[in-house]
């Protein structure tokens, strides 16, 4: 039976991570477990940068973006020696279960820590890219989408006032989810995602048609993994001679107070992750499937690629 | 085969209705259908207050709250004569399919219009209460939740500064969804919903314990269908002598530019509703189930009551 | 020469109070002074609820609404004995200068503490009502206005969708500033303020004319000190039979992260207040006049009534 | 006596321009004048792209960013022939007074149109840079500041989570106002503006000291006219080996629904500009001085440079 658990956040920060930490800590404390917060992800684990947490340590944090436990990327943990050292440290402190909140890289590390070193881990998908398979949504995605939508809406004011095209580059190295959903939500004239080869001819034709129909602004959303805003703008200007501006949303997509959805999702995942550890279901990640919290093996999740809904892609073309 | 459709919004307005109208109109136009917008819900239908809509009529509306088609409640349509007259008018204009965006009452009317008068209808769930069975979410709920969360967060500033309790009354005549989700998202000390009998003793005990633990603010969220903010405040003050303030969020919960989620949800529902009409699946409502758009018979939906997730209720108690 | 100062917030909280505290503490520390934070206003002063503050104690607070020093209203301090006791406590702790951030009542208390008990005080105007004479703006007013505008804008969505009138009650017991400025900013059809007798006939006429001109919504903003939303709604409904809804913004006007304006204003005032104490200009309040920070005697400020700009009142009538 | 006026927006768009247009149109109509809206600034003037405007043409626009009259930069108008042609067109249409809303370049054009061609013009300062002399604020600045503050606040979440420095580039080619005010409002560790030579040594020292004091994030705000974010980041990384990220806010600073302040300011300026034309005070710009609307000759305004408040600069260093 588990008595003491550790919780860490790793990789890029995502809004809602604090709600997950809060839920995990309070659920664990309610069930009589001891909880250690591990600072700065796997780096802090290797540095023994731990802090004992109780009910009050997580008060007033749900509404804050980022992660109070901080995060980092850690080279040493990528090596087996690093993970062995981590396991020793955890054992030394009597930590018999670990919660890891992060993206694909962080969850891969967690999986190896369990397979190689026997540390029971449960993962929580925390990444604004929504590129983790088998969960409908990751912690932080909904907030990121709303930041994208609010920001692009501001660009539309200027685009309309000056009759310009804007190319907006959003997050998404391997997944076009953020680009697709935010593009749909602002009625973008074109959306360029890594899952589908870009067809500049088709985009130029569409913008041309819209222009003739009297539309005075034009928004093109591009996922960073598909192309760069500069390349897209060059192609568009070259083909249709439309004055084009570029905006790279960058890090502002990571921040901000989490939305209601992310707070509730993260709270549910934090709660469910402790239950999974307690019920000896380590080696899993908590996923949202059809509105429910489920446990899916890390193995399965990490061997699959998140796919994009092709019907949404078609719909986006018809609606804008 | 359907050639001409009508679309109307009915009952209380909800953010995202415009995105649904936009998607329905553009999908229909793309498929070669004619579209009539019907103003002011069933009232406008009976007054023949119609407007022909094309691709451009729905430009720039997605980001706006409310409904450009306006809405109303209509007594005449509650009677069979009213609905017979409505059917005659629709036939006169050659409208052979009707999309109805609204809450339970509006969908009941739509169902009768089809059963009695043979008009093919497809419903879309548009109500901030989230009280329609068999769909995970209704259009407008996510925006409403975020408005609640943003607003209650402001109250927490004052609650902390003055060490007070706030009782906040939110939407939800028959369903406690908005209260439960927004209450969880702000870490409310107590959440009172119509689905569960209120226990003031337990609430008072909890607030008392939190106080002693050093918490300097206290938020109680109550669904309007469960109790009134006044009653709750009286009970709390009576039991623990805590200075209590009341806020009734009221109509501000209905408005505002829709969130990314509501824009995408409403767009998908608008698109799917036209497809349902085209594929002779009238008599249904478009529902979100496990991330997918599905068609569920109006009959089935209207004969069931939306239930609340009891695990969420328990979780909320543990986490705050 | 002053060596040790105290700072407190009193009365209703206002966004930006934390920025003022931050600026005062850091300015004082930079100048080599010791600073005590006094909790819960004059109550905490009488309870000796003090905390020593340095540069770091005020980190990360500028963006937060409310006041980290908390606030309260204090009966005991209204009596001369209370103030004598307060002076003794301050002397006992070696505090030779006091900063008081608050509204008219709080500043009156500060003035008496100086006149009767010889404690050097400097006031900062912190109240969302903007009812303090001789300063263009008080800390918190700009944030309050933006909250009012954002909220009323949401009501307009619903008002337009349902062709209704909304009566919105905002802060302002003795001053109509918030009602006037927010009413102008949302294009309200009528604005009712305590400085000017209400003329329901004129309001009804105006709404009637707008209606006939095709306007489908109507917003009436009323300052709480002029009338109640209920009374106004009854009058309007009675005269023109327009369906009317009521919203009382209440405490949400107090909260929220301060705007850029309030953060800069409060920072400047916090800085200037310490300089005033250091330069032996106690007995004054820091005021904003024509973009500059000036010191005005508390005597002068408290003997005058804030007036409303009648040209703005006329303009508001023409523009909506 | 003036009977017919034209209004145009020129140069970069700024939030609040619509409120100014609305106020100008409604004031003019109330006073019995005819009003022409001129599309796309001086370009539209030369193209005779006019539209007759009345009370209703400006309904529902106050809350929208950008400018419904659109804007552009116009080469032809920079030449005397262009301006002579413009004057002919205005005379042909019987327009005997022109309102120009825009920045320094646009106002220079307006001044020449009056001096050379005898067209009565009144200017309104509309630019988010706040770089126009003799007015405390320009239309759009306050909204821009709040967008900067909200956005930088999001970066702070990530900066804290990853213990990084962020260099944020904001608007301000010749004026550091936006950088200074937004930097103060977010508590930036360093603010780099064109008015003051940058001292990288001093900045590096400060960041170093803060780090040692335990501060886990660092924000440097730079005005585009002072340096580029890249250059600043290179200097900082070089000197203190701190991991640094870059964000260029760019066009999102232009957009968004205007704040309460900008709506009221623009309304007052729109109103005052019509009154100035009516009272034969053309050749002036409406300015905000010490809370009042005043008329200042364009000559005077354009011959001076906006200065920065050096006390604010010093204060910013002490407070962060």
From TrEMBL, chains A, B, C, D:
Binding site residues for Mg(2+): 104
GO cellular component: 6-phosphofructokinase complex
Active-site feature positions: 129 (proton acceptor)
First-tier enzyme category under EC: transferase
GO BP, one annotated term: canonical glycolysis
Record-listed substrate binding positions: 127-129, 164, 171-173, 224, 245, 251-254
Keyword Protein biosynthesis: no
Main localization category: cytoplasm
Pfam family membership, one: PFK
Cofactor(s) this protein cannot do without: Mg(2+)
Pathway listed: Carbohydrate degradation; glycolysis; D-glyceraldehyde 3-phosphate and glycerone phosphate from D-glucose: step 3/4
Residues at which ATP binds: 12, 73-74, 103-106
GO function terms (MF aspect): 6-phosphofructokinase activity; AMP binding; ATP binding; fructose-6-phosphate binding; identical protein binding; metal ion binding; monosaccharide binding
Description of activity control: Allosterically activated by ADP and other diphosphonucleosides, and allosterically inhibited by phosphoenolpyruvate.
Annotated binding of ADP, by residue: 22-26, 156, 187-189, 213, 215-217
Record-linked InterPro entries: ATP_PFK (IPR022953), ATP_PFK_prok-type (IPR012003), PFKA_ATP_prok (IPR012828), Phosphofructokinase_CS (IPR015912), Phosphofructokinase_dom (IPR000023), PKF_sf (IPR035966)
Phosphofructokinase domain ranges (all copies): 4-277
Entry annotated with the keyword Phosphoprotein: no
Keywords: Allosteric enzyme, ATP-binding, Cytoplasm, Glycolysis, Kinase, Magnesium, Metal-binding, Nucleotide-binding, Transferase
Locations listed in the record: Cytoplasm
Protein family (similarity comment): Belongs to the phosphofructokinase type A (PFKA) family. ATP-dependent PFK group I subfamily. Prokaryotic clade 'B1' sub-subfamily.
Function, in words: Catalyzes the phosphorylation of D-fructose 6-phosphate to fructose 1,6-bisphosphate by ATP, the first committing step of glycolysis.
Name the record gives this protein: ATP-dependent 6-phosphofructokinase
Organism: Mesotoga infera
């Amino acid at each position: 039976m588990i008595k003491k658990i550790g919780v860490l956040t790793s990789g890029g920060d995502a809004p809602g991570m604090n709600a997950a930490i809060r839920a995990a800590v309070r659920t664990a404390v309610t069930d009589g477990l001891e909880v250690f917060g591990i600072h700065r992800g796997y780096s802090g684990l290797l540095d023994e940068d731990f802090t004992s947490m109780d009910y009050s340590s997580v008060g007033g944090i749900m509404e804050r973006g980022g992660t109070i436990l901080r995060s980092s990327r850690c080279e040493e943990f990528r090596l087996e020696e690093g993970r062995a050292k981590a396991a020793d440290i955890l054992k030394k402190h009597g930590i018999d279960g670990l919660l890891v909140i992060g993206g694909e890289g962080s969850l891969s590390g967690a999986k190896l820590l369990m397979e190689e070193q026997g540390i029971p881990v449960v993962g929580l998908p925390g990444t604004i890219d929504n590129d983790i398979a088998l969960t409908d949504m990751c912690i932080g995605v909904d907030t990121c989408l709303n930041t994208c939508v609010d920001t692009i809406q501001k660009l539309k004011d200027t685009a309309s006032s000056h009759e310009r095209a804007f190319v907006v580059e959003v997050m998404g190295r391997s997944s076009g989810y953020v680009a697709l959903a935010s593009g749909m939500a602002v009625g973008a004239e074109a959306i360029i995602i890594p899952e589908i080869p870009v067809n500049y001819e088709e985009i130029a034709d569409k913008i041309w048609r819209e222009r003739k129909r009297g539309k005075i602004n034009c928004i093109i959303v591009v996922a960073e993994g598909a192309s760069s805003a500069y390349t897209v703008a060059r192609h568009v200007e070259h083909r249709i001679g439309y004055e084009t501006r570029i905006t790279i949303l960058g890090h502002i997509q990571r921040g901000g107070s989490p939305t209601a959805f992310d707070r509730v999702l993260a709270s549910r995942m934090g709660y469910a992750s402790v239950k999974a550890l307690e019920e000896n279901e380590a080696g899993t990640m908590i996923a949202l499937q059809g509105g429910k919290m489920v446990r899916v093996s890390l193995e399965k999740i990490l061997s699959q690629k998140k796919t994009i809904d092709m019907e949404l892609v078609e719909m986006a073309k018809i609606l804008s």
